Amino acid sequence: MPELRKDPITGRWVIISTERGKRPNDFLRESVVAAEPKNCPFCVGSESKTPPEILVYGRNGGGANTPGWSIRVVPNKFPALGIEGELDREGEGLFDKMNGIGAHEVIIESPDHAATLATLPERAVEDVLWGYRDRMLDLKNDKRFRYVLIFKNHGEAAGATVEHPHSQLIALPIVPRRVREEVDNCWHYYDEKERCIFCDIIRQERDTGERVIGENEHFITLAPYAPRFPFEMWLLPKVHGSSYENNQSSMYASLARMLKDTLMRLDEVLDRPAYNFMIHTSPIGEEINDHYHWHIEIIPKLTKVAGFEWGTGFYINPTPPEESARFLREAKISAPAPAPKK
Q1: Residue extents of the structural domains in the chain
Q2: What's the pTM?
């Protein structure tokens, strides 16, 4: 019997179509495998093909925009928004508009064209996470910006146009509606119960264990109760934290272990699928609060959104989260994250 499940955070309903019951091998997909680089703008030696770097790790000596780096952050050559100018908000009858001001940057995660966050050493993954933090903290100083989104498109099916491992950052002059709704719904829950809804979810999921995929000292990966997509995962800090960039320094190494472990499980179970991930964090000016809990959402590209989803806002998921969690939890990987005792 199919089930309708309601996401307790957004209020969004999903259909868990258990009769379709798709297992990992039932999804038709192409594994993401990097081809030999040809004129790749992100490879070592091609530094002149990108805009001048904003941040670099690993280069000891040598000039800017030269080889020897481990991570580079550069402006997107084809930005969605422009960094220069003023917002100039105005009305046009009943419509509102402003200039397309923002920042659009690329975090080049490794000099190795064939690497992924699942295959990089833990320390290299940690450096990527530090790069995210450094750029977020810098862009928050710009009073025009209200939200900074970090996201990754891995594989062509997920929207990546360059194979070389990279993530992106977009700073916006407004808080996106989806973010605003999520934060506000968390506030309403806190206002009623004086507890963070994510903290309550973590406690309940650890008690039952059926949707837990993995955990270490500081982080846990769950299959959400009402996932929009098969094998959707949430990676969360186990202790309440409202903003990604305000974590204690020691947390980033633990996050790197958990993220790498989670992505290795994904590769093992689904044979290196395309995926998106997004860091959900509090808006600028609201970074420290008791109601919102930052987290990373990971969505493999296994199904397509079609007319029913667009017309209703409902999603049809052919794999129950309890099943996807079991497959991922039982995946045989080389270095699983230790699960602490309750």
Answers
A1: 3-329
A2: 0.92
User: End-to-end alpha-carbon separation of the chain, Å?
Assistant: 33
Contact present, 217 and 250 (Cβ < 8 Å): no
Q: What are the pLDDT digits (tens) for 66-114?
A: 999 999 999 999 999 989 888 888 888 999 998 899 999 999 999 999 9
Residue 213 neighbours by CB under 8 Å, 6+ apart:
221, 222, 223, 233, 262, 265, 325, 328, 329
Strand order in the sheet with 3-6: 3-6, 13-16, 315-317
Would residue 240 show up in a list of annotated catalytic residues for this protein? no
Among residues 166, 218, 291, 295, the one annotated as catalytic is 166
For 271-298, what is each residue's pLDDT tens digit? 999 999 999 999 999 999 999 999 999 9
Pairing status of strand 315-317 against strand 13-16: parallel
* CB-neighbour burial class of residue 286 (10 A; exposed 0-12, middle 13-18, buried 19+): middle
CATH code of domain 3-329: 3.30.428.10
Place of tokens 């995926």: 275
CB 229 within 8 A of CB 315: yes
Record the tokens describing residue 125, joined without a space.
């993954």
What is the model's pLDDT at position 335?
54
Q: Convert 31-44 to b/e letters by CB count within 10 Å (16 or more is b).
A: ebeeeebeebbbbb
Q: How far apart are CA 242 and CA 204, in angstroms?
A: 20
**Which of helix, strand or coil describes residue 14?**
strand
CA 4 to chain centre: 26
